[in-house]
């Protein structure tokens, strides 16, 4: 089984939403909070991550734009 | 098992890349080519899809920005 890495920066609304994607993947998903694990920013950059949240699967980078609903903030 | 819907418009580079995401989901994934199935654009809009490619899982919309590598075009 391949491994997926989910990079994020801790925005609670986005993490909650994108958790959905992680939960629906067949792979083991490692979650990396780049705000807390600054030492891994270089690794993320080398993988091709340009912005967070991003999902890296088998070396391919997917930048995910959920666009949180305003209802999540009420 | 829930169902995921993957909306796209047939860009071959992007479809190839995003196929990776679809293949890694646990769910059954329905692929809808909105360029060919224009009758489903309204349905996509109602789901909250603003642009393609987009993935709808359990009613949540995720706009995916892969940013195809130029190497895929060589």
Please describe what this structure looks like.
Chains A, B: It holds the Pfam family Thioredoxin_3. Chains A, B: This is Thioredoxin-like fold domain-containing protein. The structure is a homodimer of 74-residue chains. Chain A is of the alpha+beta class. Chain A has one domain (4-73): Glutaredoxin (3-Layer(aba) Sandwich), CATH 3.40.30. In chain A, 27% of the residues lie in helices and 30% in strands. The first copy, chain A, has two helices and four strands; from the N terminus they run βαβαββ. Chain A has helices spanning 12-24, 41-47, and strands at 3-8, 28-33, 54-57, 60-65. The first copy, chain A, has a four-stranded mixed sheet with strand order 2-1-3-4, covered by helices on one side. In chain A, β3 (54-57) and β4 (60-65) form a beta hairpin. The longest helix of chain A has 13 residues, at 12-24. Chain A starts with a strand and ends in a 9-residue tail after the last strand. The model of chain A has no long low-confidence stretch (mean pLDDT 84). Chain A binds chain B through residues 2, 4, 17-18, 20-21, 24-27, 50, 55, 57-58, 60-67, and chain B through 2, 4, 17-18, 20-21, 24-27, 50, 55, 57-58, 60-67. β4 (60-65) of chain A pairs antiparallel with β4 (60-65) of chain B, so a sheet runs across the interface.
């Amino acid at each position: 089984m391949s491994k997926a890495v989910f990079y994020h920066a801790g925005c609670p609304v986005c993490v909650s939403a994108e958790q959905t994607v992680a939960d629906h993947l067949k792979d083991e998903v490692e979650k990396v909070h780049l705000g807390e694990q600054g030492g891994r920013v270089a690794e993320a950059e080398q993988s091709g991550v340009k912005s967070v949240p991003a999902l890296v699967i088998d070396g391919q980078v997917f930048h995910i734009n959920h666009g949180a609903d305003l209802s999540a903030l009420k």
